[in-house]
């Protein structure tokens, strides 16, 4: 099974780091507020953050009263940044592919992940591994790119535009064709996996999760008006999808 590690590519890492550190970016303006709004009270919780990246979430979990946070990521560069800028006495960072989390020998009260599962080929298999790492009644909150975003295959134009280049609407083709998408985005041959919404839901259910909440990212009209170049396209489609799930304890009895 192939595992891309594009965040260790210098150009990709620098692009991500500079946009993530910019005050106005997709993560901080759209993704993070929704994800954090779906989290339970973190006091005393043991947390696993899959694809922790530069560690911003792990650091916030620690500040919000978590007992301990384990952040795992495949990228050495991301973890180096996390250790330098997002450290804490109860935060541990480990270089590990999410496909290998079944080697972790402890269980958690909460598992989170932000914008990482686009990169896993076997989504349903990963959901089973996560379910096995969770304590009784534990929760699982995650975001990923919305399937109508990942459907893009790099061949058709993403938007139909006016003559002056403004986005009229997002184009959608091949939504039902699941699998690898290899497109030129920041680097040539950027890879992610496209799945339909039903595949995500069925992957969660078959792993034994109870889905308690689902959200699709949306942004206020004010933010769109203020930053049209960055957020102008977000009225056409939700950029991200979010799930809050609970371990189905009956399954392991
Ligand atoms: C969009 S970034 C998100 C980082 C962080 N969660 C955040 O919200 O800022 C995606 C992260 O997933 C990591 N990643 C990609 N493939 C992975 C894999 N197979 N196993 C573990 N981490 C992976 C990347 O290295 C990167 O840090």
In short:
Helices cover 30% and strands 29% of the residues. The chain contains nine helices and eleven strands.
Structural write-up:
With 253 residues, the chain is of the alpha/beta class. It has a single domain, classed as Rossmann fold (3-Layer(aba) Sandwich). The protein is built from 9 helices and 11 strands. The protein has a 7-stranded mixed sheet with strand order 3-2-1-4-5-11-10, with helices on both faces. The chain has a two-stranded antiparallel ribbon with strand order 6-7. β6 and β7 form a beta hairpin. α5 packs parallel to α7. The radius of gyration is 18 Å and the shape is globular. It binds S-adenosylmethionine. S-adenosylmethionine binds next to α3.
What count of helical segments does DSSP give? 9
- How many separate structural domains? 1
Instruction: Give the overall average pLDDT.
Output: 92
The helix/strand series, from N terminus to C terminus, equals HHEHEHEEHEHEEEEHEHHE
Structural class: alpha/beta
Helix content: 25-40%
Low-confidence stretches: none
Using the coordinates above, name the CATH class.
Answer: Alpha Beta
Features of the shown structure:
253 residues; alpha/beta; Rossmann fold; seven-stranded mixed β-sheet; 11 strands; binds S-adenosylmethionine
């Amino acid at each position: 099974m192939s595992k891309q590690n594009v965040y260790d590519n210098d150009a990709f890492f620098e692009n991500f780091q500079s946009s993530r550190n910019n005050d106005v970016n997709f993560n901080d303006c759209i993704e993070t507020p929704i994800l954090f709004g779906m989290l339970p009270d973190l006091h005393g919780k043991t947390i696993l953050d899959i694809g922790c990246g530069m560690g911003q979430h792990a650091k916030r979990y620690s500040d919000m009263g978590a007992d301990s946070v384990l952040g795992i990521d495949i990228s050495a560069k991301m973890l180096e940044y996390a250790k330098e800028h997002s450290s804490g006495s109860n935060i541990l960072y480990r270089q590990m592919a999410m496909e290998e989390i079944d080697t972790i020998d402890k269980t958690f009260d909460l598992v989170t992940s932000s914008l990482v599962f686009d990169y896993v080929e076997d989504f349903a298999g990963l959901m089973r591994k996560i379910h096995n790492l969770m304590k009784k009644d534990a929760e699982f909150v995650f975001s990923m790119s919305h399937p109508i975003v990942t459907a893009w295959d790099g061949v058709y134009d993403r938007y139909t535009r006016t003559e002056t280049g403004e986005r009229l609407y997002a184009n959608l083709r091949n939504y039902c064709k699941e699998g690898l998408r290899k497109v030129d985005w920041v680097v040539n041959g950027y890879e992610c996996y496209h799945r339909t919404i039903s595949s995500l839901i069925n992957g969660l259910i078959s792993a034994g999760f109870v889905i308690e909440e689902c959200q699709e990212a949306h942004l206020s009209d004010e933010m769109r008006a203020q930053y049209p170049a960055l957020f102008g396209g977000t009225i056409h489609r939700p950029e991200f999808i979010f799930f809050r799930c609970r371990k189905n304890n009956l399954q392991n009895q």
